[in-house]
Amino acid sequence: MFRLPHLVLILSLLPVFSHAQVLDNDSSRQSNSLKKQEDSAHSNFVSKMQQFAAATHQQTINERNADKAGIVQNEIFENLKKTMQHAKTYLKNGIDTVGISGDISKISEWHAIAGDGIFVNMGSAQTYRNLTTSYNLLGVLQKRISHHKTELDNYHHKLSNFRFQIDSLASDSMMFAFPGDSAALTKYLGKLATIAREISPADSILQKAMIDVEALQTKVNMESYRLTTSIDELELYQRQLHRRTWSREFTYLWQPTTYDRSFTTILGYSLAKSWLTFRFYAQNNYGKILFMLFLIFMTTLYIRSLKTIYRQRDLIRNDYEGQLVLRYPVLTAILIIVNVFQFIFPAPPFAFNALLWSVSAVSLTLLFRRFIIGYWMKIWIALFSLFIAASVNNLILQASRIERWFMFMLAASGILVTWIVFNKRKNWRQLREQWIIYFIGFLLLLELASIIANCYGRYNLSKTLLTSGYFNVVIAIMFLWTVRLINEGLELAFNIYSTQDRKLFYLNFQRIGNRAPKLFYLFLIVGWFILFGRNFYAFHLVTGPVQTLLSEERSVGDYTFTINTLLLFVLIMGLSVVISRIVSYFAADRHLNNEHPGKTEGTGIGSWLLLIRIFIITLGLLLSFAAAGIPMDKLAIILGALGVGIGFGLQTLVHNLVSGLIIAFEKPVNVGDIVEIDKQSGVMKSIGFRSSVLSTWDGANMVMPNGDLLNSHLINWTLGGNRRRMQLTVNVALNSDLEKVQVLLQKVLDSDDRISKQKKPLVLFDEFVNSSINVKVIYWLNDYRNDITTKSDLIIAIQKAFQQNDITFH
Predict the structure, then answer these.
(1) Nearest to 337 by CA among 303, 364, 305, 360
(2) Is residue 745 part of a domain?
(3) Is the full-model pTM beyond 0.85?
(4) Any signal peptide, and if so, which residues (predicted)?
(5) Does a structural domain hold residue 243?
(6) Which domain holds residue 581?
(7) 668 and 618 in one domain?
(8) DSSP symbols for 281-315
(9) What is the pLDDT of residues 707-752, one digit of tens each?
(10) Are 424 and 402 members of one domain?
(11) pLDDT (tens digit, 9 = 90+) per residue, 188-241?
């Protein structure tokens, strides 16, 4: 395009061109010589104008390119400044290379400690405990070095990107498009010098940082290779040791040893390894530890609140028979939570497990004090002491002659204790948990086998049998008493607490029940097998393929999954249902206030909590789909298809199915509950997806769609603990001794075990009727099914009591 000065110059030449045309027309009749001169002048003028136009066009192009180069150069300068600023900020807030270097040195030292007794000072044979502890320790170190490796790789990659960006911008061809004007060139060269001065130190810092990181990467890679090699060797040693389980590893116990290392040195390295594994495990699982402590605190509050209610009602027994759970709330909470929730810790080291078991056992010992008889208290203290000794012995990781004799005496002590127990069978009747006898008998067999294996040089087998024996009996006793204490707590709450209260977190014990669910017993049995099996390497050989099977990827069409993801799907859905059911305890309709009949508490909270329950179920469904890797677009297609199906006439079916889900979540009725639906009474026989079956008292089976069941006025007697309030009216003469009548009726009611003693029966004088007085007898039945027989028996007993005391009926 032409600029304004060029346009002015061209316009100024236009009059000259017009004048030349006029002269040419006027001189057309002149001579040929003059015409040739004018034609020559005109030709020269056109040529000059063409040359001028070409020069102007080229100048315009050059100026445009210069302007474009200036814009691009300014953008490059700005990008260079931003990139350098980002690089400086990243370097300032980058990783702590000094700390990583120090940690790598520590990992190398810990690696050396883990290898003691295996790669150096190994003695004449490997030990299973040493291999296991070192394997766990090296596994933690491997994860730690892998974390540093990933951190350094990402850091180096980021620094390389910064250098690449700076080099790319600095080497751009537009940076070398210099202006033609000398003043502009001088100004541009000044900018280049400024940028160069800024780039040079930043580039030097980046280069130095990359060199330092590369040096650290070399150290990390070397240490990672050493750790990987050591772990592979340990796995090989463990397999070889397992194949030689029944082979002799050391000399006979009475023969001299071929290798003798200082016992204090062995003990020092063993404690160092155990401490490192415990420390690293606690650091990696501090969140779970805090969660367990929180559960202990909440359980303590619950038991303390329950104890306060019992104390206020003067129901606590001096001997705490059936109420041991209330004796020491803190100790009870520790025992229950630690025993139940220790399984949230994946593959804990022995030192960590031993600490949890010891804390639980100490709590149980204090609860036993002056509760169980002296004989069994001594047996428990003996078993617990031997358990502590076995735990300490299990921390010793390398074999020695001193330890082998200690193992012999420890096993012999266990045999002596079991012999005392079986020699005094008359005391078995005083044992509160009879199953303990079987575990004590199992202890006897294991300790006998341990002594035999120890004497004949089977050290690893002997130690495994020795420790497993004591662990099995102590853990079994703690689990049995854990179940007993849980059942006591539920029973105590169920018996005295029929309404919800803030002190007990508004728990609805009519829904919880008075016994632990059967699934809980199965959980503890499986847990005992897991804890017992961890002592044997064969357990890991069995669980290894199972873990591989669970983590192996499978494909169905385009969808790839593992069994672990499916289990995670079920787990998340199960947790959402459990959390929803816990919320249902709060959302459940409260009972009438006992102190102010007719007044309800917190009527508005239920609807809000029900909305929360819907949110929990929905969130659980979405999270479970995400965890299983199911694409959300396919879920949307499924929901869309269901919507179309519902629109085409499946409303009734979907209504019943959804009602079945609501019944499953809400649990207004369970199989086996005694219910009353639309004046039909009976027992719930089954609850299906679409319909449910009620077995009536007449013997018929009534099939009812879930939608109708949910919309009916349902009376669930079982939900209230099968309790029912009954009323009986008695007419006595006007001249009767009313106080005597009241005492006689109260005595009759108290003598019937089918009538609840927690809710005292009432004898009330209602009104005068002709020549008699109406007496209302109000009582609560423990079991709703005994209403007719109880009422009949009460009438007989009342008539007999009145006849014997000259009370006249009217």
Answers:
(1) 360
(2) yes
(3) no
(4) 1-20
(5) no
(6) 561-630
(7) no
(8) HHHHTHHHHHHHHHHHHHHHHHHHHHHHHHHHTT-
(9) 777 777 777 777 666 677 788 888 888 777 788 888 888 888 888 8
(10) yes
(11) 677 767 776 766 777 777 888 888 888 889 999 999 999 999 999 988 888 888
